Amino acid sequence: MKLSNMDFQRAFGLVLSLLLLCSLTSPTEVSHDGRALLINGMRRVIISGSIHYPRSTAEMWPDLIRKGKEGGLNAIETYVFWNIHEPRRREYNFQGNYDLIRFLKTIQQAGLYAILRIGPYACAEWNYGGFPMWLQQLPGVQLRTDNDVYKNEMQNFTTLIVDKVKKENLLAPQGGPIILTQIENEYGNIMGPYGEAGKKYVQWCANTAESLKVGVPWIMCQQNDAPQPMINTCNGFYCDEFTPNNPNSPKMWTENWTGWFKKWGQKTPHRMAEDVAFSVARFFQTGGTLVNYYMYHGGTNYGRTSGGPFITTSYDYDAPLDEYGNLRQPKWGHLKQLHALLISMEEILTHGDVTTTDLGGGAVATMYTVNGTSACFLSNNNANSEASVTFQGNKYSIPAWSVSILPDCKNVTYNTAIVSAQTSIMENKPNKAESEPEQLEWSWRPENVEDILRGESTGKNVFTATKLLEQKNVTGDVTDYLWYTTSVEINETDPFYSKEMILSVNTTGHILYAFFNGMLVGSGRYGLNLEVPVNVRPERNVIALLSATVGLPNYGAYFELAPTGIVGGPVKLIGNGNQTKDLSANTWIYRIGLNGEDEQIWASIDDSKWLSDSLQVKRGMTWYKTTFKAPLGEEPVVVDLQGLGKGQAWVNGQSLGRYWPAFMPPNDCGGGGGGCDYRGAYKSDRCLDGCDQPTQRWYHVPRSFLKDDQNTLVLFEEMGGNPLQVNFRTVTVGTLCANVNEGSTMELACQGDRPISQIQFASYGDPQGSCKSFKKGTCEADNALAAVQKACVGKTSCSINVSESTLGASKCGDGVSKRLAVEAVC
Ligand SMILES: *[C@@H]1O[C@H](CO)[C@@H](O)[C@H](O)[C@H]1NC(C)=O
Ligand SMILES: *[C@@H]1O[C@H](CO)[C@@H](O)[C@H](O)[C@H]1NC(C)=O
Ligand SMILES: *[C@@H]1O[C@H](CO)[C@@H](O)[C@H](O)[C@H]1NC(C)=O
Ligand SMILES: *[C@@H]1O[C@H](CO)[C@@H](O)[C@H](O)[C@H]1NC(C)=O
Ligand SMILES: *[C@@H]1O[C@H](CO)[C@@H](O)[C@H](O)[C@H]1NC(C)=O
Ligand SMILES: *[C@@H]1O[C@H](CO)[C@@H](O)[C@H](O)[C@H]1NC(C)=O
Ligand SMILES: *[C@@H]1O[C@H](CO)[C@@H](O)[C@H](O)[C@H]1NC(C)=O
Ligand SMILES: *[C@@H]1O[C@H](CO)[C@@H](O)[C@H](O)[C@H]1NC(C)=O
Ligand SMILES: CC(=O)N[C@H]1CO[C@H](CO)[C@@H](O)[C@@H]1O
Question: Which GO terms describe its biological process (predicted)?
């Protein structure tokens, strides 16, 4: 292999940073007591965020991790995804975005700790929960229970991962970043149906983990019966009421859901910053010492990695870093302030004596005291009303569903419901690349299905069977697509014969297209019993059924056994007087995948088979191809696939994942209006939006997929769509807003090195409304706008102390609590 100059510089840089690391890293001892993790004997507060390495690119990792660190994290957590690393038994892949070791080293280089959830069952809305398909096909295997075949494979892979990180000195006692390791995952939630075998399995997991001698504690999340020394931990939207199963285990929260994932056909979930902050502050108020945000960066399900069925390609999760790696504001900033405060209270939170006082009406005061100094939390669990309380002789009002933090037990320096961090409204800006035409030029190619529709397929990936088979078992899950084709001779004397009959197909899903004598006669999604009228000929009739999966299930007891495809059927023709002809035991011709998949059309540079004339739109089973210039700049790139139906997309041969802009959520925007109330227990169906647009219209194109000159986009459109509206955009901050109380500091920043160009609104007094609808109130200072313009316009970021001395006299009465509200344009 030849090293280019660039490679050489990179390699040289790596050597340098490795040298640097060796000199900086020293063995770290990790243990725990009932209060906290002990790192080199010191109790620590750990604030961690989940970033799943295959859901971004290796080029994005340093920036994501840096933004996590800047947001106040001291640890990054990830699952390990078995099915991408061992796609075929004992054949491994740790390349590119699957380079776990490089990811862990990037965390280490940033000076953060790592939490490694080996599992190797991951759940994670990941295809098949992370299990490789070959595992389920081993004779005699039963997953996640006391089964020797399974345990042998689990042990083999877990050992491989542990050996790999040991070899690279990545465990804390070796000077590496890994302070915790996890075995299994949320098994306690679903172990009931496994009975005694499940209990034995939990013991076995613990023993196996112990035998691997990682030198750091093991955790088992959602596992009340986790045997010592496993530490059982909590996952959920709130974990304040969680208590570990052993007095020697610290209270740790391995999944605090910062938002929620999205499914095709559903609206977009949101979880307000105020409620995430409330849940974290409550957790620390009640003795928690380790929190992990699930997700801190959700990212993208590239390729066919999304679980489900029906999990979208975007795994944005409403996380503090958005799908593309931008700061999601105010969530990121509001939590950053909380983290700084909690870390500053580390000593007292991990050592203090705790006194709790019920102040009535849902309000609780918690005081941590050590050596005569105290820190306090005042919480109000009431979802409807503010609490006015007197605590240690001082009066406080605590907004509904919030926690105030008083590091000196006197002054409130943070309240979870009062957000002073800026709000950033993101915009997708048009591609400004030079000489890029308004509309892209497309060529197309039909997926050749004629043989199949005639019932005559032959060749590679084709075989016959006299029954209806389970789909993923047949395909090995290397493709979404499986054709089931049969033909039936019918003559007019057949008792069930009538000219018009019903074709009835019972499928477990996920998507079905039914063709009869070459014509598409029906389609449907989910598991369904499709019944469509067909015109039967008194001769040979061909039935071709295309079944497509949309991500395999990832959660639940025995989820791996959930069938896919037209397994067992029945497939029938129903005719005269409801007499039926059952075709389930016919000779079925199976065709695994598409011709285009066999050819890897998306990676091919052979243009000869593409047609550039008479572009066909609204045509199912069609490949499209275009070239485009990369948008200028560094900002994240997305492609707008509005107009298309359903399929998969590739840029320069790399998969962007499945697309499905034709799928809209149920149109019930009405009622309740916009806005979202953070108060009251969050559930994944609260605060939904996006009811009037495709579940997912925009698809992330990582910068590292792009070349400076010409780029290629290939689409496979399965149901019919129009690519003429497709265009590329960059995602960037459009509008900034902030609303900050007197005595605090307002901070504003655009993105990267883009300056603030204009202040559209600034009022210091009692301004009303919210971002994009601010109005001045009853009183304001005369010169606030000028002061903000002077401090911010032309700068990439600015900071203003909200006080009369910086903004001028407000002319508000004494009873008015003053604020500065600003709306700015980047
Ligand atoms: C995993 O299995 C392979 C054989 O399939 C064996 O060679 C290897 O030693 C096993 N690894 C461990 C850690 O057991
Ligand atoms: C409390 O004071 C004692 C005695 O001065 C000291 O040893 C200890 O480290 C202090 N503890 C904390 C948490 O500050
Ligand atoms: C902190 O609290 C004390 C007592 O309530 C008060 O006198 C003092 O002004 C407060 N300090 C600040 C900076 O708000
Ligand atoms: C999967 O296919 C194999 C043959 O390839 C068969 O022996 C096995 O029974 C199938 N399993 C299921 C669940 O259909
Ligand atoms: C029609 O089908 C029946 C039963 O398969 C067969 O016995 C008969 O010979 C067929 N008639 C014609 C005209 O093909
Ligand atoms: C359709 O298939 C499902 C799952 O395989 C089965 O439970 C159901 O009984 C079938 N329905 C009919 C009408 O056969
Ligand atoms: C055929 O089945 C349908 C649906 O089950 C029923 O409504 C109809 O009455 C039946 N027709 C005859 C002739 O039995
Ligand atoms: C804001 O006030 C703090 C102290 O209260 C001071 O250290 C800081 O310099 C001030 N910042 C600006 C931009 O005036
Ligand atoms: C019990 C439960 O719902 N667990 C889910 C928690 O959230 C994670 C992340 O979304 C999922 O992977 C689990 O299935």
Answer: carbohydrate metabolic process
